Amino acid sequence: MAKNVNLVGRNLYDLDTYSSAEIETIFETTQVMKSIIKRDYKKIPTLRGKTVCTLFFEDSTRTRISFELAAKRLSADVISFTKAGSSLKKGESLQDTVYTLDAMGVDLYVIRHGCPGTPALVHKYSDKPVLNAGDGKHAHPTQALLDMFSIWEKKGTLDGLKITIVGDILHSRVARSNCIGMKKMGAEVTVCAPRTLMPPKIEKVYGVKAEYDLYKAVQEADAVMALRIQMERQSEGLFPSLGEYSQKYGLNKNVLEQTKDDVLIMHPGPMNRGIEIFPEVADSEHSVIIEQVTNGLAVRMALLFLILGGKAAKEVK
Ligand code: CP
């Protein structure tokens, strides 16, 4: 573990407030957690007596389940709150919901919400740490951490690597958090999309390169990440049709042939096969998409451990 790194009690809204040393510590701890979840007996008692509450106001498979499993693997108790079936339906506010959950002894909140900034709002109502599991188009820092860890583990570093993110950059919280985190760790990031799906001034704001030609964008990349078109966050008319989008920006066999021999193919999920990525690429020997899911569990274990427990990675046995 890097010297002077202590994440106890920290919030995680996005990666802009985490240093490269802190991210490196999360990666080192993730390696240890990954070794634990590969054992026959996958559970350690470190967070026994702690209570983690997941608050999901948007759909999720990977993030919600992996956070809840991560807490259980560390022996914490888990409260799984979803809007459906809760008293929010009777008009209770988010503020009173958090006060209610706090009164039951929650030690840490994980929240996904369609409104940017909601994780910080939860922390106004509770002094417990809050982890952002995706807030609107703003940020998805734990996804970025698992994406970065997946590259770091395979390549040994992110420093100096060329990473291309292709797809709906405009609506993607995953792209935003990855641009911040990858740049912080020394990678050269290229984002590729039709002009209508590229945020204005992205080069200036994030220090990345914007490229509109997919073939050029992938040629020198050490890792290529495809993103889903976020139909739920956009108005119509940003591209003629999904079929035409796919022809120009979908990762298919012809695109894969343009890449380096040791390229990593990534996708945060959920995938829309046949649109942004084709089976011959998603299931190719270059793909680390399934391993990203395993790494997501390990990264979330590491975060819960460091924020609620705080011991050095080597002490986790
Ligand atoms: N990548 C991701 O956030 O997936 P879920 O929406 O399934 O959590």
Describe the fold and architecture:
The chain has 317 residues and is of the alpha/beta class. Helix content is 38%, strand content 14%. It has twelve helices and nine strands. Strands 7-6-5-8-9 form a five-stranded parallel beta sheet. Helix 1 crosses helix 5, helix 2 crosses helix 12 and helix 5 packs across helix 12. Phosphoric acid mono(formamide)ester binds next to helix 2. The site of phosphoric acid mono(formamide)ester has 9 residues, from helix 2.
Write a short abstract of this structure.
With 317 residues, the protein is of the alpha/beta class. The protein has helices at 20-37, 62-73, 94-103, 118-125, 141-155, 173-184, 202-206, 214-218, 242-249, 253-256, 279-282, 289-308, and strands spanning 51-56, 77-82, 108-113, 130-135, 162-166, 188-192, 209-211, 223-226, 264-266. Helices cover 38% and strands 14% of the residues.
Contiguous helical run count: 12
CATH architecture annotation of the largest domain: 3-Layer(aba) Sandwich
Structural class: alpha/beta
Q: How many structurally independent domains?
A: 2
Bound molecules: phosphoric acid mono(formamide)ester
CATH structural fold name of the largest domain: Rossmann fold
Shape: globular
Instruction: Provide the low-confidence segments as ranges.
Output: none
Tell me, what is the CATH class of the largest domain?
Answer: Alpha Beta
Distance between the termini: 15 Å
How large a portion of the residues is in β-strands, by DSSP E? 5-15%
- Sheet with most strands: 5 strands, parallel
H/E element string?
Answer: HEHEHEHEHEHEHEHEHHEHH
- Overall pLDDT level: 94
